[in-house]
Every structure is written in C-alpha cells, then in structure tokens.
Amino acid sequence: MNLSIPQVAGVKGIRSVPGDKSISHRALMISAIADGKSEISCCSRAADPMSTLSCIRQLGLNVEETGQRIVIHGKGRHGLQPSSIPLDAGNSGTTIRLLSGILAGQRFPSIIIGDSSLSKRPMKRIFDPLRLMGADISGTEKNTAPVRIEPVDRLHSIQYALPVPSAQVKSSVLFAGLFAEGTTSVLEKTQTRDHTERMLGLETKKENGSFSVSVNRDIKIEGKHFFVPGDISAAAFFLAAGMITPGSNLTINNVGLNPTRRRVLDIFLSMGGKIEIENKRIVEGEPVGDLVVMTSEIKSDLKLHGAEVVDLIDEIPILAVTALFAKGTFTIHDAKELRMKETDRISAIVKNLRLLSCDVEEYDDGFSFEGGGEYSGNILPSYGDHRIAMSFGIAGLRIKNITIQDTECVDISFPGFWNVLLTQS
Ligand code: S3P
Q1: Which atom in ligand 1 lies closest to the alpha carbon of residue 26?
Q2: Most buried residue, 50, 144, 209, 394, by most Cβ within 10 Å?
Q3: Ligand 1 center to residue 342 CA distance, Å?
C-alpha cells in the first residue's frame, strides 16, 4: 500500500509504543528454556517477535495468550521438541541468530528459514563462534539462511572477542553457553545492548578497555514474570515528530531507557530537543520513564562515529530525517553495519534524501549532508524496511507531497504505526 502523508498541526496527547522488540524476543526465548511457568506483560505483538513466538510453539511449547499477557509453560533447557517443519524466522535477524544459539545445544536437528530479505543477511558471524564451541551449524554457500543445525554430543566453552559489535552475536553465544561445558565469555570493545545479560542475571565486567560477560550451564533459569518496557527505537519516531512539527506537545509513556539504548534520546537533547523525562523508575532491572516532547528549534552539527554509532544503530534513519530540519552538517561514519540490516540502510537513506532534493554525500560507512534546507516531496520507496518507511513518513509531516510505498512493512516492529501517528495528531 502507498500512503500520502498529510501535514499535521503538531502531534499531541499521549501515545504508547509497542513493547521493546529486543526484550520481547529474549523474554520469549528465555521463558521457553526456563523451568516452569513465565508470564510476559506488554510483549511486542509485532511481526518480528511473533516469528519468535511461532518458532517456540513449533518447538513444542505450550503458550497462552490473553490480552496484554503471554504465558509460557517452560520446559527447561532440554525440554524443547524437534519441529516437524522448518522454523520460520520471517524477517527477523534476532530470531534466527539468537535461536540458533539455543538450538545448537539441543539433541535434535533443526532448520531455520527466513524471508527473502533475511535470507540475504550474513550468518557467518554466528556460525564462526558456534562452530568454535563444537556446534554443527551451516547455511548456504554464501553463509546465509536456511540455517541447518545438527545435534552434537557436547558443546564446549569459548572466550570470544566479537569481531563486529553485535548484540545478536553476543546473545547467540551466551545462549549456546547455557548448554556448554565450562565457562563461556564474550568480549566486546563497545558494549552493545545488554538485555540478555540483565535477563539472565549475568554481570558485565570492564577489563583492559573491553566489556566481558560470562555464562555457564549451571546458571538456573526459573520461570518468572517479565515486564517489557516500550521500545525506545519506536518512541524515537514520535520524539522526532514532536520536535519537528510546530504546535506539538506529546507524551510517550513507559519507554525503556536502558543506557545501551538511550543514546538517541541524548543526541536529540544535544540537538536542542525539548524533551523531558518524567516518572523515572526501574522495572525488573530495566530503567523506564515517560517522555514528554515539544516543538523544538533544533540544530545539528553532528559528526557521529565509533561507539556512539553502535548505540544508535537502529535509530540512524530517523536521526537522519530529524537532521533534515536542523541547521548544520550531519555526518556519520563507522556505520557499515547499516548495510547489513533489513535492507542496505545507508543506500536507502541516501537515495530517499536525494529524492527529497537534499544534497547528500555517500561513504562506504556512512553519509553527510547539510540540514535546514528547502526540500520537495516525492514518492519514496520503503525498500520493504520498517525503519525506512517510518522515518520518511515522519519527514512527510513537514515536507509536502511525500508518499511512502509499501507501508505495510511497519508491521515488522510497529503494527498500527500509521494510525497512531496520523489519527491522533
Ligand atoms: C538487536 C541487535 C541489533 C539491532 C537489532 C536488534 C538485538 O542488531 O540492529 O534490531 O535484539 O540484539 P546487531 O546485533 O546485528 O547489531
């Protein structure tokens, strides 16, 4: 479906965003291998976490869904059953990579497939460490999905320094470490999102400039209650909408403010965003707050690189769109990982900015442009990528005549996004 974005006189009122996607995936998977019943409140019902849910059902888990709650009757580390059909991860990199870590430790074979976008994404990054642990895991000749996992007698521990900063790879290795003999450690130069660590109660240590986290198979995983805070990566679209549209005054309730995820908020604040954090609290180990955003006069002399890009990896599309309306030069480097996402996001952002008459320079690992110019509307492809569709949808609140193509891809992380954005404005 194509959608012409109407101009709005500010975004107002109170909005909620879906439960955090990363935390939802992990709550579902950890509940599946826990001993006993778990209850997950406010789990995201977006297509990606629902791919994880359907995989764990396929693995024999009894799941009850009532309103805001999902109840999973965990069967322990070795209670999963083989699936008679391939497990389908859909569009979800988190599903395929994290589940591979769990399935590498099972006593039965598994196959995980994905859609055409996921089937192009790199899986060698998980094959390498899981094979070092003794797993029998393989993909196509190009090291892509379908992923095949054969049972092995045992997995053994490794000390693994992540060659690329990736929470998915870290979590995949940590999950496999729950089945391995000895203590498995993952080291990273830049700390990526730490939800797996928090949810399994693992301690991250900082030593010699690296972050290190360890796991072993003696760690108890008991069924419990999981509360999933609102997704800051989804809230970022409304923060941007609030800042750039005149007459805005918007509250977004219950947003997760984990330090490894909140960088986008800090960048918006540094750009002059009028954003208040209210009602700060810790809920089940994760910091949460309500965000109030008002129309802001923003500026952007931003040169993003290195560690901060890792923290912002999912928010770069919306940050780029926000910078369109801020005077100054927006430059990003060290973001090559963006080319490995649901689509090549560097190329998608650059092409769409050019379609809006913005003069952008593209680099192998980023891009640069001058914000605060005059732009003209156009028909913009979403490239089937939810974050590209939503980001350029927000641009349409300020630039006349923007039409977004294939808008239904937002269901991957935010079903109902267009209604929440447009009908309540
Ligand atoms: C995620 C990690 C990130 C992120 C993705 C979710 C996770 O991917 O882009 O949307 O839940 O661990 P990488 O680990 O590949 O950077």
Answers
A1: 11
A2: 394
A3: 11
Nearest CA to ligand 1 atom 13: 166
For the segment 151-163, what is each residue's pLDDT rounded down to a tens digit?
A: 999 999 999 999 9
- Residue 271: domain span: 3-19+229-422
Asked whether 168 lines ligand 1 (CB < 6 A), one says yes
> Is 222 among the domain residues?
no
With contact defined as beta carbons under 8 Å apart, do 310 and 294 qualify? Answer: no
Q: Which residue in the block uniquely carries the two structure tokens 């990363």?
A: 22
* d(CA 110, ligand 1 centre) in Å: 23
Task: State the pTM of this model.
Answer: 0.98
- Which sequence positions are flagged as catalytic? 314
Same domain, 60 and 122: yes
Q: Is the CB of 22 under 6 A from ligand 1?
A: yes
**pLDDT at position 169:** 98
Pick the closest to residue 215 from 173, 152, 258 (CA basis).
173
Residue 401 lies inside a defined structural domain of this protein:
yes
**Cis bond before residue 146 (omega within 30° of 0):** yes
Q: In the structure, what pLDDT confidence band is assigned to residue 275 with cuts at 50, 70 and 90?
A: very high
Cα-only R_g, the chain: 21
